[in-house]
Design brief:
single chain, mainly alpha, 3 helices, rod-shaped
């Protein structure tokens, strides 16, 4: 497998990775809350919202780790230092 296939969920930029990870994390929390407390149990829609929220919640750290690895691997192949965060 190539590096690109392994690190599919990573962003090229550290700032983008943090932004997407934060969006997935908050979206997952909100969807889980909606599925557990707000949406009535009609046709199991509340379970669907909860599962989608859990997937978003669990993909947030995957995006962060993958972004970190992408920045380190591309910096080593380009012989540059990785981008610093502000």
């Amino acid at each position: 497998m190539t590096k690109k296939k392994l690190l599919l969920f990573g962003c090229r930029n550290v700032k983008e990775g943090i932004l997407f990870s934060f969006a997935f994390f908050t979206g997952g929390i909100l969807m889980m809350f909606a599925g557990l407390k707000l949406i009535p149990p009609v046709a199991n829609i509340n379970h669907i919202f909860t599962v989608i929220g859990m997937l978003l919640f669990f993909f947030a750290p995957v995006i962060l780790i993958s972004t970190f690895l992408v920045t380190i691997i591309t910096a080593k192949s380009d012989n540059e230092e990785p981008e610093e965060c502000d």
